[in-house]
Design brief:
Layout lengths: L1 E8 L9 E8 L4 E5 L6 H8 L7 E6 L2 E2 L4 H5 L2 E4 L11 H11 L4 H14 L15 H13 L5 E5 L7 H16 L3 E5 L3 H7 L2 E6 L2 E6 L1 H8 L5 H9 L11 H6 L10
Parallel strand pairs: 3-8, 3-9, 6-7, 7-8
Antiparallel strand pairs: 1-2, 1-4, 4-5, 9-10
Helix pairs in contact: 3-5
């Protein structure tokens, strides 16, 4: 479970906020999709959850452990796939995966079979002896996903994970996300691919200008908008500049039914 309580992030001493007083609870056993236009604050929020960035104010807990107060313990509960797969490029594929296994203390009798299974599943069996810098973008993305799955974390956070993946790898990733959530664990991912989100998520959160505008299921969003349209159509309406939700005025109403928190909700 992820708890975010009145979290803000400013890069300029408070003159503006990339994330503004955001409160949200993401449950164990669900896939939660974070949607928003470019510059909405999605990556900033995910990087704070992963401990890459420190919040300016507010608290974040991963399975009850504070990211700020006990960062190492909190990070042991999660694996993070960022918005760039260009990491540790001089390592070979198997060296990268062994490094991840060492960091998360995956037992020797577990890591070998698990690496072999992931390499086979993602079609990387013949690439593990090659340096990551020789991989295509899509292959690097597969390697980051494999590294995040290897420790079998309680919380899995992914920032635009479909970028660069071929259709088969995208399908495999969606299956991996579903299995992870069905095992009682938490999956949080951001995406711009709204038709994918509509098919995959249990709940969705829409963020714009650093504020959470809506939290709930896609059906609840349709009910709120009295719409039979696609998630894409509702998303465009919700995040348009002239939307009454753009100022956060509609967020509390949207969340009263679901019980999840939005800016200002109690």
């Amino acid at each position: 479970m992820i708890r975010i309580d009145h979290v803000s992030k400013s890069y300029d001493g408070g003159a503006s906020k990339a994330v503004s007083d955001l409160t949200l609870e993401i449950r164990s056993g669900e896939i939660f999709g974070l949607l928003g236009p470019n510059g909405a604050g999605k990556s900033t929020l995910l990087n704070m959850l992963a401990g890459v960035l420190a919040p300016t104010s507010g608290t974040i807990e991963l399975d009850g452990v504070s990211v700020v107060d006990d960062p190492l313990a909190a990070k042991r509960n999660l694996c993070f796939v960022g918005d760039s797969p260009d990491h540790l490029l001089r390592l070979k594929g198997h060296e990268f995966l062994r490094f991840i296994a060492d960091v998360y203390e995956v037992p020797d009798d577990v890591r070998g079979p698990r690496i072999a299974e992931l390499a086979r599943e993602y079609g990387m069996e013949g690439e593990l002896d090659n340096q990551i810098q020789s991989y295509s973008h899509g292959m690097r993305q597969k390697m980051m996903i494999m590294g995040a799955l290897l420790p079998d974390p309680a919380i899995w956070i992914l920032d635009e994970p479909m970028t660069g993946l071929d259709p088969k790898a995208s399908w495999l990733l969606k299956q991996s996300m579903r299995r992870h959530a069905d095992a009682g664990k938490t999956v949080l991912f951001s995406t711009h691919v709204l038709d994918v989100a509509e098919k995959v998520v249990d709940r969705v959160g829409v963020i714009a200008h650093g504020e959470l505008l809506f939290v709930g299921t896609v059906d609840e969003m349709r009910e709120h908008f009295r719409s039979n349209g696609s998630l894409e159509e509702m998303f465009l309406e919700l995040t348009s500049e002239d939307s009454p939700f753009a100022s956060g005025s509609g967020a509390e109403q949207a969340d009263e039914r679901d019980g999840a928190a939005a800016p200002g909700a109690r």
